Amino acid sequence: MKPDDALEALLRPPVELWSTMTVWGVALVAIVAPWALMMPPWMGWVLAAIAGYFGWVRCKQALHILKYQHGMKYYPVTRMAPHEIPVEPGQFYLGHGFEWSQQHTQRKHEASRPDAERFVKPQAREKALRQLGTRLSAWSQEAAVAATSDQAPPSKFISIRMGVAGLTAQMVQWDHWLNPLKAYDDLGGSPLLHGVGALEERPITMRQASRTGHMIVLGTTRVGKSRLLEVLATQDIHAGHVVIVIDPKGDADLMMRLYAEAHRAGRGNQFYLFHLGYPDISARYNGIGNFSRITEVAARATNALPSSGNSAAFKEFSWRFTNLVAQAQVALGRVPTYESLLADVTGIDPLFMDYAHMVFRQKAAEGQYTDYQDRLGHLEGLIEKKKYPVSRALSDRDPPLVAMISLIKELRVPDKVLTGLAAAVSYERSFYEKIIASLGPFLEKLTSGAVGKLISPDYFDPHDKRPIFDWMSVIRQGGIVYCGLDALTDSVVSSAVGNSMLADLVSVGGKLYKTGLDPHHPTGKIVLPTICCHFDEVNEIAGPEFVPMVNKLGGSGFRITAYTQSMFDIEAKVGDKAKAGQILDNFNHLVMLRVRSVNTANLLAEQVPQVDVVHITPSTGVSDSAADGSGVDFTSRNVDIVTSTKVPMIQPADILSLPQGQAFALLEGNRRFKLRIPLPRKDADPFVPESIRQVALDMKARYRTSEQWARETDWLGNQPIGLAGGGVIDTALALRDQIQDEQEDSDGDDSLATRTEPREMDFNSSANATGVLE
Asked: Where are the domains of the chain?
């Protein structure tokens, strides 16, 4: 091996094998025929031991060279079942890999030389052996199928053939780098990017405490973002954290994976499924029903409206009328929903009358306008008799409505909402409809069909068994929520719902930051939960509310991991390059899989330093001279000139050449890592449902009926949130959950199943981690 101050020479023939065979041959002769070496037997054994040890050292060096060159040619693949993902206290597993340094940049530079091609690319002999292995594997499978078919008569020949086929399959599938017949997956890209450090590979983790700085994952389609999301979300589920996954595509495989992991962790009763593509089994969610300030309702309802050019004015008008309607609804004790907003914005007259009567009743109770009913009746009579001047815009309105508007103007009632509603009602109907022309169709899209019942739930429908969840109750419960927005079917609805969810989370985060989970904690401490948010295709749902989410919610216990294809996706969504840069700058950790844009790759490449790469230039020269009697007729020299050049440690072309499932990462203060994401095992997983139908049946069995709310105890009071578990994921956690499900099914009426009294839980103990809701 090389001394510490010498250059590496890993791309060369393994010449150590020659000395290995030589000294081992000497050792064999020394044992078998010591007389041939003119030494006694005991000395032959001593020589054999010394030569054997020297040969072992040289053989180890040769194998190191061969293994390194093998890693430069082929893709390493690790398959891992969910319960095999390492979960260590305080650590967060990202994949297998190594920390990238100057040494790896040097190796990559050496591998790009033309004379190194035969060491970093499979040669014809190796390709032929791999193809032979593929044919042998196919033959063994065909032989096994033919032998087990009903038409194959039992015979000794068949048994021998099955045995040979089994041995052949084991030989071909032997998972070792020395196996010349093993076929490797073609993952695209360049395998040498991971091969330069494959011998130093280890599990790469980051500190859980550093996750509050948030992480963004960039990568083009089908390169492993969803698989990384599964790996990361699985750890959060088994660690006992609150987990929120928003998936605009509505990937059914991801949904079933989270469903399976929730049950594997014994948290099946804490799992909420919200999916716009499967409304029959989805829970319900009102994105505008929970707020800290009433103006949030209008902002969430109109955020998805176009705001460029002339549309900006119409969006502002829509916001104003929506805000008036929302304030009036809340004052009347109603819960705002998209459906109620649509009804009251497009038909504002009934809401105005209800709110006006409520205001006058309140004023009358305070001793003001006590005769308003008499004055209202008097005005109404004059209007009916056409003895009171009425504006042209109100000429086709009902007399009670016109009388109420006139009375409000006459009395100058000091209520901004009332005067605002009166002004809106006073507009000419055709003019008012033009002002809200963009708002009405948009709200109709959100409230049409079965999807409308999901995002505009009827709180008083006793026949709808689907639960209605809100973020604060999910957080207090320690829940797991999967939100599939079905963007491929209707991108407008999915974007609006996603925006409202993020805005709602920001509002909840503000409450947690100020008061924590328990504003009345006896010690006065602010107890914060651990909330792990995974936003796939974040560009689909990112809006103005996403900026405060990534730069402020870390202090509320939120750990956000966002996934997208390109930095341009975010820029196109928010419509401002500066604002897109503001969003990206608030992510402390960056994981970048293969991307297709050099500008996106530069987001990582420009953050790494430049390092010195060494070049060796051989120089040979000969010079002769006339005979001068000195006896020297010519001189020669052989020189290796060593020079160094500054190059970026990671170049954009490296990122564009990444194989599928591999990534570069900048973690915890710009520490550079090369990652390889483990693939899922192909073995059948008993916790993964066979189909969406099975998920539907189970979710329907678990849903509680809305008319049973009075019988449910207060389980929101003392549940400890965010207690991290330790060790490898324990699949035994789900046993009690399965037994519990069987007991519930045997009790008779599932529709009347209610929650039991809460109890303190310790997610560090697998005996107690059976879920909050039983």
From this structure: 16-73, 91-203, 295-449
